[in-house]
Amino acid sequence: MEIFEDIEKVFNEKFGKTDTQKFFSPGRVNLIGEHTDYNAGNVFPCAISLGTYALVAPRSDTNTRIFSMNLADKGVIEFDMHGLKYNSAYDWANYVAGTIATLEQAGHKATNGFDIVIYGTLPAGAGLSSSASLEVLTAVILNENFNFGLDMVEMVKLSQKAENEFVGMNCGIMDQFAVGMGKKDCAILLDCNTLEYRYSPIKLGDASIVITNTNKPHSLVTSAYNERRKECENALKELQAVKPDLKALCELTNEEFDEISSCITDPIEKLRARHAVRENQRTLAAVTALEKNDLQKFGQLMHDSHVSLCEDYDVTGVELDTLAELAWTVDGCIGSRMTGAGFGGSTVSIVKNSAIEKFKSVLENGYTKKIGYAPSFYVADVSEGTHKI
Ligand code: GLA
User: Fold this and answer.
1) CA 32 to chain centre
2) What CATH number is given to the structural domain containing 116?
3) How far is ligand 1, taken at its centre, from the CA of residue 289, in Å?
4) Would the CB of 342 count as within 6 Å of ligand 1?
5) How many domains does the chain have?
6) Which of 75, 128, 218, 264 is deepest in the core (most CB within 10 A)?
7) Is 348's C-beta closer than 6 angstroms to any atom of ligand 1?
8) Is residue 267 part of a domain?
9) Using alpha carbons only, what angle is made at residue 282 by residues 218 and 362, rounded to the nearest 5 degrees?
10) Are 148 and 97 contacting, i.e. CB atoms less than 8 angstroms apart?
11) For ligand 1, what atom is nearest to the CA of residue 127?
12) Which residues pair with 351 in a beta bridge?
């Protein structure tokens, strides 16, 4: 693979020539089911061919030296493999250090360190899970080298734990699951309550998945995200007062929610909960539509998802709204919505191949005029999960 020739050159420069192992870990795009994972609902993401490549060589001591070709100005970051704690000096490598520490705490102790060069094709801040990509990558590198015998779902859970406890982003399990468990040309319908999942072939006929990056400079996603999560927990507590057996928002149908939602005192928290409940039902309906080849219905549900994320969940913002609203005007755009946490990042759209050029020009012109800088476009290939090459 050509990409590894470039990585190898950098590796030789930084660490000297030696035998190396090759790994790839994808990013993800979520087709529908947003902010449902931590409410024990359903999500429908897929892994994409943009992701993180790594060239890795085991060392004889317990040090690790790691260099990212995308963040060359951060230089080589070094740490000992044992007893790792969050350290701002590790910068982006905290995702790697966090996963090593989380595996160690779970009893999977690395007995040596590594020299690693990373090259990512995921645009930073695009909401395509570059952090989950790095975490699952790290878990797979350790599992391969030390024969921990972890299966992918165990590595996914430990990667999420690293993000929650080491990095402090209280995320659900969707991103790590999509990255680790991805399958070529399939989306994953995942029930985040039970972790039951099924692969659903993405048959888009003469259409493709187009990702549009707002290129919004990094916003305060973590604090706003953790706040949404808290709002859902507060709403759940009030619902539990009238329905004591309720364990999570997404257990409710829309009708059940409407019957009891008046007990949620804070009007904002009521809207948050309403989004979670409806988005979960919408996700199931969307998967059924896709499996019946009813792309129009799937597109309509993507639209409804975006509106709910804008009006009830308030995680879109002018950049994502502008992209989605422009997309909805393009003939041949079957559906479009924000994807991921929101507050910036990207939209995901299903666009007829014959309309992609038109789609790009309408969004680029309209967005640049309103926002002041251009978006970027990626036609996504749906990829396999994290693996050794
Ligand atoms: C982020 C989180 C996920 C999920 C999405 C919103 O990507 O990491 O767990 O909550 O936001 O659907």
Assistant:
1) 12
2) 3.30.230.10
3) 23
4) no
5) 1
6) 128
7) no
8) no
9) 50
10) no
11) 7
12) 208, 333
Q: Which residues contact 91 (CB under 8 A, 6 or more apart)?
A: 71, 74, 77
Domain span at residue 86 reads: 2-201
**Residue pair 249/224 in contact by the 8 Å Cβ criterion:** no
287, part of any domain = no
Ramachandran category for residue 48: left, alpha or beta (phi over 0 → left; psi -120 to 50 → alpha): beta
pLDDT tens-place string over residues 351-387: 999 999 999 999 999 999 999 999 999 999 999 999 9
**36 C-alpha to center of ligand 1: Å?**
8
Domain-embedded: residue 11: yes
Whose C-alpha lies nearest to ligand 1, atom 2? Answer: 171
Strand order through the sheet with 346-352: 333-339, 346-352, 207-213, 376-380
Q: Does ligand 1 come within 6 angstroms of the Cβ of 37?
A: yes
Catalytic residues: 175
| Position 169 in a domain | yes
Distance (angstroms) between ligand 1 centre and the Cα of 283 equals 15
